Amino acid sequence: MVEKARAHFRLVIVDGRAYVEKYDRSFQTRDVFTQWGILQLLRRYPGKLPDLELMFDCNDHPRIPKSPAAGPPPPALFHYCGDDSTADITFPDWSFWGWPEVNIKPWEPLSAEMKAANRHLRWADREPYAYWKGNQWVDRRRQELLQCNVSDKQDWNARLYPQDWVAESQKGFENSDLARQCKHKYKIYIEGRAWSVSRKYIQACDSPALVVAPRYYEFFSRGMAPLRHYWPVRADAMCAAIKFAVDWGGHHQKEAQEIGRKGSSFVFEEVKMEYVYDYMLHLLTEYARLLRFKPIVPPGAVELCREELACPVEPLAREFMRQSEVRAPAAMPPCSLPPPMKPEEVKLLWAERANATHQVELLETRPLADSEKKP
């Protein structure tokens, strides 16, 4: 099952040391920063990880289709996201330790900057529009989103800006500081080729995130609920749905601000690096329990070490590694793993979330004057 999932690299942990056998080159430094994150996990919790062996894929789309109930189990592949039709095992993406190609800092220092920016500009003083900025060419729906921009004929309450990363890099990323993009009362999240690493940054602004019908999930997003942590936006009537959300928030400012606050609180508190590492530890421990063989170091593997990863990369990448480096083992043990949810609990959870989304769709069919009742 492990061999069938061959992807960008194989990770083997034996006696608390990590080894990587590389098969394919990933886009930019995704593989390097993913491996850096694994190395930091070992430094945070030395001796805690059992021996294991896994395959890791660094592309955008999940790759392993779910098997029929009566069929053989699917190969085990670790990846950044999944959807309802795939069985990829979700793992924190590289950007938690930094994305130097687009000048995005590691999550820990960046989240601190975003908290400070939120305190500096109160929600009530922000521009009353929905904001999005990004690469529109990675997905058709992003190009459709740009049709919701303000024009001489229509104002959909959206302010949307295409991002040319090549041009931006030539300018030193002077217009791409995420901590300075929390100036609007609403932020839009829309997926790229698959999921987008931008979700945590968008949710971190203390502004309600208008989430356009996502198909994919990363390791934390299934813990978020519509109308609690974000406002759901239907994809088949995107412009009208965005306009309605902003208009509704204007009439229900207290409730809208609460959605923004809870969304930010989720990513700041539930997705802080302490818990990211705990998730990684529990996930790898539970995975290792399923292995029916003793992992051994492959002949072509290279041991993960700080110098091996940091020395070949560019100066900005080295700086992000320095900022995200674990300096010493954790002073406290990892959080405890709760028991798995029962099937009926999972069904109830999804039913509640589907009902919340349906409530919004019902509100959108009525004039705003009739929608004063809280959803």
Automatic annotation (TrEMBL):
It comes from the Eukaryota. InterPro entries: CAP10, O-Glucosyltr/Glycosyltrsf_90. Residues 48-294 form the Glycosyl transferase CAP10 domain. This is Glycosyl transferase CAP10 domain-containing protein.
